[in-house]
Specification:
single chain; Growth Hormone, Chain: A; 20 helices; disordered C terminus; cell membrane; MFS_trans_sf; transmembrane transporter activity; MFS; transmembrane helix
Length: 445
């Protein structure tokens, strides 16, 4: 039987066609393009300039995601702050300042590995702050019926950045050096801060109710809600598993392309950029595929298609053009998969989380889901040193595909859409059960 999802979001949200959403969309688009440059520049700087080992490159990736281990506490704090928009602006400014220390250090004659680690940690922490404030901001900006469409637009921009960003980043790095190239990302965060800061948005005073309103109690409440909710629990298990295994490979892919496949920075950027057209195509088609297959089945499809192509990258060989083409094909399929997974899943999660616990649930989700990423990256570095890069990529592909097993017994595969008319009818029939399963009862706090 098809399942619809109850709407628990504020009726005062704004549709994407409101002129405030395009402003936010523009800021995020600019920021995404800058991120692609830094994602290529940091590991290449470590590999080419500092002669970093696989374990050191993996540590760099791990430090970017390590602050997510504290997201559950930060989300609890963010939930009690009224001005989520200001927190997002602050996060952008912190990231810009941290990145600008790299060209400054380069101008002074040195960029030690310790500085790369510090930049990774600070930008990661600011990213956690931004992401904890983002869900409430998004839910106030976009109507529930438009979640998939709005997420598709944001993901389309992100996908487009993966198409042009790596090629642009590779060219900038070759022309200007990696430390100077990250200036583009710093400037993109400043643009994002200006655009978000100019968005007028009604942000009501957060609720302070609950039997346990302490800082730790609110954090525990967010985790309890996540684990008790059948949709969020399955989504968390699947996303955490797939992130662990894909991040075994994430920090090593550039290293693999450069050292094992022998590709230049420009060739790596071009291969990853062309391959990222898969993400662009996936983002554009995700709403249509979700309508055709149903949201839930699209999520399951994406959960499999996202990690599996890592095995294709692992077998790359032959002449340089063939190695680059195989890397490109793997990136294409992975990009399409991650969009088919992320866009409907993000929309579904936004629909089932009440606004009053949105940031703390987001923090709890990030602590587990994103917190596993540094562990995956460190595991990848250890495995690469022990068994080599190719076997490590194959293991990552196989383990990542198994993540879909979390979804199959859950309600997610039966979810067809977020249609508000169907939701109203489903709400009337399912209210008693939903109240029992979904509400963050005082006993769970």
């Amino acid at each position: 039987m098809a399942t619809t999802v109850p709407n628990q979001n504020p009726p005062t949200a704004l549709a994407p066609r409101d002129n405030r959403f395009p402003r936010f969309w523009a800021g995020q688009s600019v920021s995404q393009f800058g991120d692609r440059i830094t994602e290529l520049a940091l590991p290449l700087l470590a590999v080419t300039t500092l002669d970093a080992t696989p374990a050191q490159v993996a540590t760099l990736t791990a430090l970017i995601w390590a602050p997510n281990l504290l997201a559950i506490l930060l989300g609890s704090w963010v939930d009690q702050q009224r001005r989520k928009r200001r927190l997002m602006v602050l996060a952008d400014l912190i990231r810009a300042a941290a990145l600008l220390t790299l060209p400054i250090g380069y101008a002074l004659g040195t960029v030690p590995l310790a500085q790369l680690y510090a930049v990774a940690l600070v930008t990661g922490a600011a990213g956690v702050l931004f992401n904890c404030a983002y869900p409430s901001f998004f839910a106030r900006l976009v109507e529930p019926a438009d979640y998939v469409r709005a997420n598709s637009r944001l993901s389309t921009s992100r996908s487009a950045s993966y198409v042009a960003g790596p090629a642009l980043g590779g060219a900038l790095i070759q022309a200007l050096t990696a430390p100077v190239a990250v200036v583009a990302d710093a400037l993109s965060f400043l643009v994002s801060a200006v655009l978000i800061g100019r968005i007028p948005l009604d942000e009501p005073q957060p609720a302070t109710g609950g039997d346990d309103a302490s800082f730790v109690g609110r954090a525990r409440d967010g985790l309890a809600f996540t684990l008790r909710h059948p949709v969020l629990r399955a989504a968390l298990g699947c996303a955490t598993t797939v992130n662990f295994f894909t991040f075994i490979a994430q920090g090593l892919l550039v290293l693999f392309a450069g050292r094992t496949l022998g590709l230049s920075a420009g060739a790596i950027g071009l291969a990853l950029g062309l391959g990222s057209t898969g993400a662009l195509l996936g983002a554009l088609l995700a709403p249509r595929i979700s309508r055709a297959l149903g949201m839930g089945r699209t999520i399951v499809l994406g959960a499999v298609l996202f990690p599996a192509p890592l095995a294709l990258a692992a077998v790359a060989g032959g002449p340089a053009w063939a190695r680059a083409a195989t890397l490109c094909a793997a990136e294409f399929l992975m990009g399409a998969g991650v969009m088919l997974f992320d866009i409907p899943l993000n929309s579904l999660q936004t629909s089932v989380i009440p606004d009053e616990v949105r940031s703390r649930v987001s923090g709890a989700f990030a602590t587990v889901n994103y917190g596993i990423r540094p562990l995956g990256a460190l595991t990848g570095g250890l495995l690469a040193d022990l068994v080599g890069l190719r076997p490590t990529l194959v293991l990552a592909a196989f383990g990542g595909v198994l993540a879909a097993l979390w979804l199959l017994p859950s309600p997610i595969p039966r979810v067809r859409s977020l249609d508000p008319v169907a939701e109203a009818d489903a709400d009337a029939k399912a209210a008693p059960e939903r109240d029992r399963v979904a509400d963050p009862a005082p006993a769970a706090r």
